[in-house]
């Protein structure tokens, strides 16, 4: 006869092993989810555009952000962190990336949305490079799983341009 303690130990070992296996499977199954998110961002208004006394350009935009990130959610998804970045080139830097807006999306139901918003974070250039500047708006997202590794991807939207004159 095995003692009670021995059997409890065996049961616990089985439990932990099963849990570990389930976590591994959950994480592994994420590899078979091929999400097809979509995004569309319109610059609705340039609220103002100035050269600061420091000499840096700053612009305030009103954006209409539409996105459908529902397909990034699986049963193993805890939440999705999304952020919209303005990306542009300057003589000094091949890639300047400035986050304009971000959000933590807690559920699949909330992953399809349209919002009107001013840029939440300031769009300031380290110099006066923004006049007439062509830029991309890139929606980045990080899928945070309940277990397993994080996934990140993005949609690049091209063809935006800032005004030539301050206003
Ligand atoms: C915008 O994105 C396109 C495609 O990824 C890229 O070729 C281009 O260099 C980008 N433009 C700017 C201004 O960053």
How many independent structural domains? 2
Helix count, DSSP H or I runs of 4 or more residues: 1
SS strand fraction: over 45%
Mean pLDDT: 93
| CATH hierarchy class name of the largest domain | Mainly Beta
Name the shape in a single word: elongated
Q: Summarize the amount of helix as a percent range.
A: 10-25%
What is the CATH topology assignment of the largest domain? Immunoglobulin-like
Reading the helices and strands in chain order gives: HEEEEEEEE
Supply the helix-strand structural class. Answer: alpha+beta
Provide a descriptive summary of the structure in words.
With 167 residues, the chain is α+β, with helices and mostly antiparallel strands. The protein folds into two domains: 1-31; 33-161, Immunoglobulin-like, CATH 2.60.40. 16% of the residues lie in helices and 48% in strands. The strands form two sheets. Strands 1, 2, 5 and 6 form a four-stranded antiparallel β-sheet that branches. A four-stranded antiparallel β-sheet has the order 4-3-7-8, with no helix packed on it. The relative contact order is 0.22. The site of 2-acetamido-2-deoxy-beta-D-glucopyranose has 8 residues, from β3, β7 and β8.
Compact summary:
The chain has 167 residues and is an alpha+beta fold. The chain is 16% helix and 48% strand.
């Amino acid at each position: 006869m095995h003692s009670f303690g021995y059997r409890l130990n065996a049961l616990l070992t089985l439990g932990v092993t099963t849990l570990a296996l389930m976590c591994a499977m959950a994480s592994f199954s994420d590899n078979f989810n091929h999400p097809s998110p979509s995004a569309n961002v319109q610059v609705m208004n340039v609220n103002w555009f100035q050269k600061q006394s420091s000499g840096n350009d700053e612009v305030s935009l009103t954006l209409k952000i539409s996105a459908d990130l529902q397909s990034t959610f699986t049963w193993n998804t805890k939440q999705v962190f999304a952020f919209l970045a303005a990306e542009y080139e300057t003589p000094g830097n091949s890639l300047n990336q400035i986050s304009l807006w971000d959000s933590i999306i807690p559920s699949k139901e909330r992953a399809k949305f349209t919002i009107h918003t001013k840029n939440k974070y300031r769009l300031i250039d380290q110099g006066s490079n923004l006049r007439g500047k062509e830029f991309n708006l890139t929606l980045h997202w990080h899928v945070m799983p309940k277990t397993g590794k994080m996934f990140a991807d993005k949609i690049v939207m091209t063809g935006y341009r800032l005004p030539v004159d301050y206003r």
